[in-house]
Amino acid sequence: MSVRGSVKTAIATAVALVAISAYFASGLLASPTRASAAPHVGGSIVIDVTQDPGTLNPFQDGGIEGNYVSSDIRDRLVDPSPQGQPAPALATSWSQPTPTSYIFNLRHGVRFSNGAPFTAADVKYTFKELLGPKSQLAGNWTYIKNVKVINPYKVQIFMTSAYPFLLEQLALNSDAGIVPNGWLSKCGSKCDTTVIGTGPFMLKQWVKGSFLTLARNPYYWGKPKPYLDQVTFRVVPNPESQVVQLKSGAADVLYTVPYPYISVLKKSSGVRLYTHRSGTLMELLMNSSVPPFNNINVRKAMEYGINKQQIIKTILLGFGAVPSGLVPAGNKYYDPSLKAYPYDPAKAKALLATAGYTASKPLSFTLRTINTSYFESEAALIQSQLKAIGVNINIVPMEKSAFLAPLFRSPGTNPKGWQGGLEQYTFGNSTESLVWEQYAAGSYINTSYVNRPGTGGFTDPTLQRLVTQGIATTNVAKLKRIYHQLYQRIEQDALYVRISFADNIQAARSRVHGFQALSQFEYPLSRVWVSG
Asked: CB neighbours (10 Å) of residue 36?
């Protein structure tokens, strides 16, 4: 099955939109001035999203959509501040008595949305289950050894080794949202839809494929927040339809504005545009355990054969940057001395010939992608670029859950049953999360399968050593040096084609106040209020 519609049409449509970028790339988009009026209590908003959360089960991966919702249902010990630093939430303060542990003093008088009191036992239970055999997310928290209850309002988290990023991980990861003690044993067959937390909102109704509604948590500790009575996430898969809904007032917020519609919304009365620095990495995933990507020369040919700058100009309309290093500019670990693979089709052809692929024996592979116009248009452009170096791609669009299942080695799937994939990876401000999840041998999000046991993927002991060193390093200057070496190793191994760091642009009706992105998928709705 090939991508829907004509490849030429998809590319031509995107190219026609490039002219818009000349006006907006100069930085004319900016976060609007904050409203001077006092917040108003009451009212509701509608947020259009492209699809449902994968799940709201706290111990399963719900994807970005799951993060949107979960972060407003389940409070964490610490939250991200507007400046991106850890700030008090369920924990009012903390200390580090040893290099491998933190003590958290918990907030008194907090209740879950079912009225049950919050205590240290809930924190211990949440992390026990998060690290347990029923958790899909356990691999991302392996640096936590255990949690000790000191008293009902004090816990100590012990780590397997010195890990300097615990507070950042707790603040920036919705996985760390606390649930009541024993919740998993009580939710039965409804763990996906009955989640309970201490957050500002609670789940009211979820009609999958249609809408998900949150209502104010009557027990929320942070009064007078939340200001809104209700928030509805409405599933609207078509981006153009989302824009129409926002312009008409039928929707109030878009978390992600499709690039082709920026100009439309910029000119729309009653709509504000917001920008947030890049934290979304677009990548061509290559399964190093199967042909053709078990051959390093083929992987390097993809690096040289894909024109990343053209993709940014054509698909992102200039709102992005070619990744030259692990992280985008502005991140504290950004390293301006590092460079990306240059676009060099001649070099790509030579590498393909070395791998045994020629004009009479061309390389062909299947490229899986999520079935949205954004992904499909980008896949079509990549298809065209690689065609120019003699590579044939069969594009297979599919639903996100089906796309991710074999990549994450979900039960019943074949990890060798796919070759290439086009996917976004969103990591907010947490460089440590990005490095561990993408490159550590024990991470289920390690989709290149490098060093991953049981896959037959590419092996590089030096890379794994650098990942391990990075997790245990507390000195920032030393960590920068480790990340410098790590990036060079990643590029040497050609594990992914890192295509772009895309800027994040949101939109909201003018009646919506207090809306702000704290990281790539952190939109705290407790601060939002409406006028009129």
From this structure: 6
CA 192 to chain CA mean position, Å: 20
What CATH number is attached to the domain comprising 480? 3.10.105.10
Backbone angles phi, psi at 273, to 5 degrees: -105, 140
Average pLDDT of the residues in 377-390: 97
Number of domain units in the chain: 1
Which among 204, 127, 202 has a CA at the least distance from the CA of 166?
127
CA-based R_g, the chain, Å: 23
Distance CA 279, CA 297 (A): 29
Does the structure show a pLDDT above 90 at 404? no
Average pLDDT over residues 264-291: 89
Contact between residue 319 and residue 29 where contact means Cβ atoms under 8 Å apart: no
- Average pLDDT (170-198) is 91
Query: What single letter denotes the amino acid at residue 474?
Result: T
**Distance in angstroms (rounded) separating the CA atoms of residues 199 and 113:** 8
- What is the C-alpha separation between 482 and 476, in angstroms, rounded? 10
What spatial distance separates the first Cα and last Cα of the chain, rounded to whole Å?
49
Domain assignment present for 236: no
Q: How many CA atoms lie within 13 A of 197 on its CB side?
A: 32
Q: Are 289 and 447 in contact (CB under 8 A)?
A: no
Q: What is the phi/psi pair of residue 387, to 5°?
A: -60, -35
User: Would 222 be classed as within a structural domain?
Assistant: no
pLDDT digits (tens, 9 = 90+) for 294-307: 999 999 999 999 99
Q: What is the pLDDT of residue 519?
A: 63
Q: What does the pLDDT look like over 127-157, one tens digit per residue?
A: 999 999 988 888 778 789 999 999 999 999 9
Range of the domain at 430: 7-12+278-503
| Nearest residue to 208 (alpha-carbon basis) of 333, 75, 52 | 52
Asked, for residue 41, whether it belongs to a domain, the answer is no
8 A C-beta contact, residue 67 and residue 521: yes
d(CA 175, CA 137): 8
- d(CA 298, CA 21) in angstroms, rounded, equals 33
What are residue 275's DSSP bridge partners? 505
Please report whether residue 333 resides in a domain.
yes
